[in-house]
């Protein structure tokens, strides 16, 4: 199966920025949606952002809208999440996810491929 590898996580102070990257193990893979989810301790895994292959359509969770930007390189099947104005509430493990399905972009059940996650910690 495809392997997704996240990178770019780390620790920053409130107001700082991080850029997460997600890369597939095979260049030939082409997913309709490439997305980011996150999960904090004791919380359910929640949707963060998604970007479509076809026209670059994006979705964002209300909690990150205006602060995070998702992008992708269709040729390489990679995705990035630029996170700005980070808050302590953004602290979580961030997961890259992909799917060939064209619907259900915000639902974790739609995704068949997941990365191992990368830790993002924001201190106050």
Question: What structural keywords apply?
Answer:
124 residues, mainly beta, 7-stranded mixed sheet, 4-stranded antiparallel sheet, 11 strands
Can you characterise this structure?
The strands form two sheets. Strands 2, 4, 5, 6, 9, 10 and 11 form a seven-stranded mixed β-sheet that branches. The chain has a four-stranded antiparallel β-sheet with strand order 1-3-8-7, with no helix packed on it. The relative contact order is 0.32. The protein is built from no helices and eleven strands. It is an all-beta fold and 124 residues long. The chain has strands at 4-7, 10-13, 18-24, 33-39, 46-52, 58-60, 68-73, 78-83, 92-99, 113-114, 118-123.
What's the topology here?
Layout (H helix, E strand, L loop, with lengths): L3 E4 L2 E4 L4 E7 L8 E7 L6 E7 L5 E3 L7 E6 L4 E6 L8 E8 L13 E2 L3 E6 L1
Parallel strand pairs: 2-11
Antiparallel strand pairs: 1-3, 3-8, 4-5, 4-9, 5-6, 7-8, 9-10, 9-11
Task: Please estimate the helix content.
Answer: under 10%
**Approximately how much beta-strand content do the residues carry?**
over 45%
Specify the number of helices. 0
The coarse overall form would be globular
Distance between the termini: 39 Å
Written as H for each helix and E for each strand, in order along the chain, the element string is EEEEEEEEEEE
Sheet bearing the most strands, described?
7 strands, mixed
Q: Spans with pLDDT under 50 lasting ≥5 residues?
A: none
